[in-house]
Amino acid sequence: MIAILLTAMAVAGVGIAFGFVDGALQAFVAAPLCLIALLWRGGSNSGLVRAGETAFGVYLVHPAVFLLL
Q: d(Cα 36, Cα 51) in Å, to the nearest integer?
């Protein structure tokens, strides 16, 4: 997983360097944050777990809500 993220950062960096910024900047910013999350082995925090589950639930449900609206 870490190798994939490092490769994504390298490809995004090359894309930014050559002017292909459509999505490359987001990947270049998100990949280090994902690396930090993977490498950080802190204790489980139930508040963070609930917040993550809520955010994922909103992510999954929001297209249906927009279709209904």
A: 18
With b meaning 16 or more CB within 10 Å and e meaning fewer, what string describes 4-28?
ebeebbeebeebeeeeeeeebeebb
Task: Kindly report, residue by residue over 8-64, the tens digit of the pLDDT.
Answer: 888 888 888 888 777 777 877 888 888 887 787 766 678 878 888 899 888 888 888
* DSSP for residue 65: H
CA dist 26 to 8, 16, 29, 56, Å? 11, 10, 5, 19
At a CB cut-off of 8 Å and minimum separation 6, what does 32 contact?
9
| Domain range annotation of the chain | 2-68
pTM for the model stands at: 0.46
